[in-house]
Amino acid sequence: MMKSEELFERAVKRIPGGVNSPVRAYGSVEEAPRFIQRAEGCKVFDADGNTYTDYIGSWGPMILGHNHEKIREAVIRASENGLSFGCATEREVEMAEFICERIPHVEMIRMVNSGTEAVMSAIRVARGYTGKTKIIKFAGCYHGHTDAMLVSAGSGVMTSGVPDSAGVPKGCTQDTMIAVYNDLNSVRQLMEESRDGAAAVIVEPVAANMGVVPPKEGFLQGLRDLCDAHGALLIFDEVITGFRLGFCGAAGFYGVRPDLVTYGKIIGAGMPVGAYGGRKEIMEMVAPAGAVYQAGTLSGNPVAMAAGLVQLRTLWEDQEIYTRLCRKGEMLFDGIRKILMKKGIEYQVNSVASLGCMFFTEHPVTDYATAKQSDTKAFSEYFRYMLNQGIHMAPSQFEAMFLSDAHTEEEIGETLDVIEGYFSGI
Ligand SMILES: Cc1ncc(COP(=O)(O)O)c(C=O)c1O
Ligand SMILES: NCC(=O)CCC(=O)O
């Protein structure tokens, strides 16, 4: 820990909180962050020479595992031609075609540099297209740090215990309406209450920023129906679920078609990439085709596109990967459920395919309010034990564990042994 501690001491002097994104700080679990030097497969290696089995996966992108040979080579090859031109390139066309030809609800797509930008832009397009202003989001869902979405947000905002952010003017959030996840009535009510209706409902189709909260049967289809009835667009924020629950993301997994979808993480394979896409008539609103302005100096960056395309091609060509990920998800999350049952502990384990988490509460977790009932002190203790035993998880109760194709049954088995060890000791 010496080197990580030293680095953290230096970091806090020059970087707010010592990190470039709040979720990387270990404040809520009362630890200093481990500084990572290198990663390979499902392992990360810190500055002190410790090795961890990693369940963060860079917060989602690393679905094939870290430092994947094909992606690394694509990046090296692409970078030999220059890092950025600020001009159109063939690879951007390949990327757009590759996605649009395979994902039925994405007829056109625009590349950006992060999930935050993707959401910010999709909302602007929804407002431009519908001529309406209000947006309905769900408490506990996180859609990046754009002003309008920092209301009752999940992820680091929820971990910090301050659900909204300072520095966001009221004017930026007055058109954001907050509904309850898994509660269609709360959405119906907001739609009926608001005089001009809503431009869009934005949802994480599997909520994964208040811990993992799966949609109840019929919830997503119910949103589709409500949007249709009230002339609102349905935006699936698939920054986490896109290309993870299947190539067609949660939309494909649950068979519900959104009007717009946002991507991030996996689409860039570890490079800073986001995207938003959807129905052609909506996407044709985007400049320079249409009147909704959205731009980016580095958008569609050639090196990032090379990395993303290789990852997407690999996922498309070997769709067995999704079967394998589901199997690994079952092994890990059912394994945890079995341990808890054996020990007579009634904590909740929520999971969908390769995403999941354990909540330290006896009550089922279906939304923000129930997620918040989790005993975060108990989580912290568990987290610290796991970290010391070489298991690297997000340092917050309100995040997901991510599996990758590189996790083997052996490593998952070892992780379960550590978890069993923890619950045998308390
Ligand atoms: C569902 C969701 N939307 C949007 C974002 C924002 O993406 P980024 O961090 O790339 O800006 C995230 C994660 O950060 C996310 O999980
Ligand atoms: N689930 C939370 C994230 O993915 C956020 C990562 C970040 O903000 O650094």
From TrEMBL:
Recorded superkingdom: Bacteria
Keyword annotations of the record: Isomerase
Main EC class the enzyme belongs to: isomerase
EC number: 5.4.3.8
Protein name (record): Glutamate-1-semialdehyde-2,1-aminomutase
Organism for this UniProt entry: Hominisplanchenecus murintestinalis
Source taxonomy: Bacteria, Bacillati, Bacillota, Clostridia, Lachnospirales
